[in-house]
Design brief:
The complex is a heterodimer. Chain A is mainly beta. Chain A contains one helix and eight strands. Classes of the chains: A mainly beta, B alpha/beta.
Chain lengths: ~130, ~375
Amino acid sequence: MAGAEHRFPAAIVDAAWRDGRLAFQVASDAAALWPPRLAAPGTGHPLDWRDSAGLGVVYAATALHVRDGAPRSVVIVELDEGFRMMSRVEGLAATDVRIGMRVRVRFTEPDADGTRLPVFEPFEDPAP
Amino acid sequence: MSLRAGTAIAGAAESDLGSAQPGTRPVDLMVQASLRALDDAGLAPRDVDGLFAATTQLPMAPLNLAQDLGIEPRYTDATNVGGSSFMFHVGHARAAIAAGLCDVALVAYGSTQRLVGRGSASVQELDPWEAPFQPVMPLTAYALAASRHMHEHGTTRAQLAAVAVSARRWAALNPKAWSRDPLTIEDILCSRMVADPLTLRDCCLVTDGGGAIVLTSAERARDLRRPPVLVLGAGEAHSHRHLTGMADLTTTSATHSGAVAFAEARLSPADVACAQLYDAFTITPILFLEDLGFCAKGEGGPLVASGATDPGGSLPMNTSGGGLSYCHPGMYGLLAIVEAVRQIRGECGERQVPGCEVALAHGNGGVLSSQATLVLGGPATA
């Protein structure tokens, strides 16, 4: 991405999410990184951006029991590329989300200012 | 230069705990605890020349405290890394004392979070890529860590609950504890679920309160009012600010802070007569038992469920009743140090651990983010 070194991570992620792309960073040793940052941990070297295929597994899961309404899912998803991010799993009750569950990203419909969020849904890998 | 046993805690005290009167300021509780701790040591505010303080309600806490104590310290440290800040302060204070930058260091805390409401007392800084998913922090972070620990190690909700039951058994022996009624595993499992796998009773109390300790050189402490409690080892570490920055949700940087503190103290977990392990949620002492080396990774739940940490057990833990049953005024770490000091001095009455020569106080801050460990000992451990 030309000029990426002059753009702060929030702007890059926001633009990617509006576009329906699950952007993440990679260091020169190919390690996938999340959350985004300005430079590679430890070395300060520039980081490259990639788009994830959006497939992963639930790494940690909770259901928040809010005062009104159904329990709300909050999860950490481990993407196949090797980074972990916070999100939620939709398409089933929050209390039924299980660690190890295979999931795929889906971007929410744009809100009034075009913001979209990467949420996850259960996914079955096609038979080999 | 080894700092081992060169510094002593010469005074320790709580402020009034529980529910503060309307109008009470956080600095009032800091001052109250400070005066009590200084009196405990046989010192006065004018003797203090090193000041260490933190609270979520006062970003420049040492300035508030110095103004109200009427002192102008020559050394000041406002390190705020959450509930473990005071273990960090002790580590920094002994370095300052050893370097001659101050002679008498006061470490203090105060919070009126119950009085003013937790939301305004402790505004949560959210990560921009976590916030859209509306995690209620810090609760959500600990629930996620607990979920992963259960998945990897087979830890059960009943084992989590055993942490709260153990704390309550100790609290029953502490007249100052907020919650002293009998509590069973079943009570906790049947309590309102707030964030799977944590129920309301897996979460710490929300109280007002504060505390203070006074440090000086071990040499000077020998001439003061109370038997000195030596700082045998101190270690500090931090690994992330927000949860998604944590490399492994089941292992904290207490592995580092604990190893450093034990190595310096030339002691091991087997030498510890009682452990004060920050219990913001029932999962946290389980993680720290493992990360500090009291048991292997994954064995923290079974260890607590065995009754080892209860009164009369082989590893007395959170002997005041901890943040779960005694007092949790937002940043609990200082009160864990006060309890360790009192156990070593043999002042704990019904809950006294017999022959407590070495006690450990471990602090946690943020969302398992900052970790600091103190190994403390009586005069004979020098």
